[in-house]
């Protein structure tokens, strides 16, 4: 029996990526600028709509770092961040020597809880510091409660940084994720819904802001014949080779979303009849998730571990949900608001194989493990 590894989420090429990369070689645009970078940015702008301006960067983390710089986050400032997320959402706060203030999740989308968010803002202001930004994440592709979070952002005049690293192709009330933040970011790392082998983007609302991102991400060179600098710059621009992969991937993005959503329905169908398993799904018609990763919550930690190990024994990769940032040793001294929703999800939750390249035969192997287990 074939026992080759089934990955949680692996790169899935569409076919034309190499054509764009070959073009880059043929024209010697082997550099962090060129026609593929421009083309990829236009592809993303067209896809997202809403008159956004996209700057292609070396990673989603770099995009978050620049987003916080653009929002003037400095040493000793406070930045609010969803606790249940990948560490890359929070690390850029630390790069700037600012303090993250972590917020619990709500039960429906597993994203930032609006009630805990407002409680945190009120308390931080009472303690003498108004947070500089709110980093909200669409976990596993599931849109966060945008209307509620936006209302709070407006009430207290604190901008939203939308971490849409996992949610390209998701929508909320018909609008694409990646267009909701005052500043938004995307990631094209190897495991994401589309990949450039490594890369990211910052989505800006104005051309001026995008130009500033390009300026900062290419070492902040002033307009002079020699190297003249009046700002600290970064080497964060995307390479024209990687952007070529991105252009090929954009051609298959919608197909990948459809395939990931099929995986979700495959699991949803299986668990429909099972007691004690809760699948992450859209709470209302307003939400449309790309279902980047299909995730479930079991009724205990022990059961979650048993299932994870049952998959592991069959060479099938699964992964516990993101460990909340307020439980991470590196952030243990940071303020936290909420209760134990994200902690419980972490204890009992599991991400299942979700690649858009999962084969029928692989799904059968997954189903066999599930059937034996339940
Ligand atoms: C992947 C990811 C990032 C970081 O993106 P990179 O391109 O890997 O730097 C940020 N936030 C979330 C939620 C992610 O999943």
TrEMBL record:
Gene3D superfamilies: Aspartate Aminotransferase, domain 1, Type I PLP-dependent aspartate aminotransferase-like (Major domain)
GO molecular function, one term: transaminase activity
Keyword entries, A-Z: Aminotransferase, Pyridoxal phosphate, Transferase
Entry's transmembrane regions: none
Origin: domain of life: Bacteria
UniProt xrefs under SUPFAM superfamilies: PLP-dependent transferases (SSF53383)
InterPro entries associated with the record: DegT/StrS_aminotransferase, PyrdxlP-dep_Trfase, PyrdxlP-dep_Trfase_major, PyrdxlP-dep_Trfase_small
Pfam families noted in UniProt: DegT_DnrJ_EryC1
PANTHER family (alphabetical): DTDP-4-AMINO-4,6-DIDEOXYGALACTOSE TRANSAMINASE, TRANSAMINASE
Family: Belongs to the DegT/DnrJ/EryC1 family.
Protein name: DegT/DnrJ/EryC1/StrS family aminotransferase
């Amino acid at each position: 029996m074939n026992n080759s590894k089934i990955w949680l989420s692996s790169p899935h090429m569409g076919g034309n990526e190499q054509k764009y990369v070959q073009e880059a070689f043929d024209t010697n645009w082997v550099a962090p600028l060129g026609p593929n970078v421009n083309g990829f940015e236009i592809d993303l702008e067209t896809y997202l709509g809403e008159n956004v301006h996209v700057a292609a960067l070396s990673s989603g983390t770099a995009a978050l770092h620049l987003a916080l710089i653009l929002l003037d986050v400095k040493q000793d400032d406070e930045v609010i961040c969803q606790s249940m997320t990948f560490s890359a959402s929070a690390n850029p706060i630390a790069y700037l020597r600012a303090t993250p203030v972590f917020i619990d999740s709500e039960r429906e989308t597993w994203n930032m809880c609006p009630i805990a968010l407002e409680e945190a803002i009120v308390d931080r202001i009472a303690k003498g510091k108004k947070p500089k930004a709110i980093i909200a994440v669409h976990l596993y592709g599931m849109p966060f409660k945008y209307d509620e979070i936006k209302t709070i952002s407006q009430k207290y005049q604190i901008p939203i940084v939308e971490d849409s690293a996992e949610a390209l192709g998701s929508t909320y009330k018909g609008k694409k994720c990646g267009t909701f933040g005052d500043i938004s970011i995307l990631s094209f790392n190897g495991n994401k819904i589309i990949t450039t082998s490594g890369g990211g983007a910052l989505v800006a609302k104005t051309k001026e802001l995008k130009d500033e991102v390009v300026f900062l991400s290419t070492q902040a060179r002033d307009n002079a014949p020699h190297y003249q600098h009046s700002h600290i710059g970064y080497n964060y621009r995307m390479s024209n080779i990687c952007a070529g992969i991105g252009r090929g991937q954009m051609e298959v993005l919608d197909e990948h979303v459809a395939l990931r959503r099929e995986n979700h329905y495959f699991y949803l169908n299986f668990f429909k009849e099972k007691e004690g398993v809760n699948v992450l799904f859209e709470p209302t018609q307003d939400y449309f998730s790309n279902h980047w990763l299909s995730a479930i919550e079991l009724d205990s930690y022990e059961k979650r571990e048993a299932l994870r190990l049952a998959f592991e024994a069959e060479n099938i990769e699964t992964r516990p949900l993101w460990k909340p940032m307020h439980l991470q040793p590196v952030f243990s001294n940071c303020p936290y608001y909420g209760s134990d929703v994200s902690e419980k999800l972490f204890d009992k939750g599991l991400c299942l194989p979700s690649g858009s390249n999962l084969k029928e035969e692989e799904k059968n192997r997954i189903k066999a493990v599930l059937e034996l287990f339940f």
